[in-house]
Prior knowledge:
It is built from two helices and three strands. The mean pLDDT is 93.
Amino acid sequence: MAIVTPIETPPGPRRRLRLASPATLQPIAEIDVATAADVQEALVGARQTQPQWAALPIAERAAYLWRVATRSDRERHP
């Protein structure tokens, strides 16, 4: 949960949002909002890749996801 505030951006399809903690009002992050074209591109890529992912054994998929989660956690908490 976060307090979301639009950030003024130049004209165009991209929007940015500022996220703040509801408890402290301290800034958490600024993020770009995906456009419809971004979402469509992501869907096409996911649909193309899904059969290869599904063909991997469960243990291999779990190991991959564990590595991604560990890396993400290290980047968030250096």
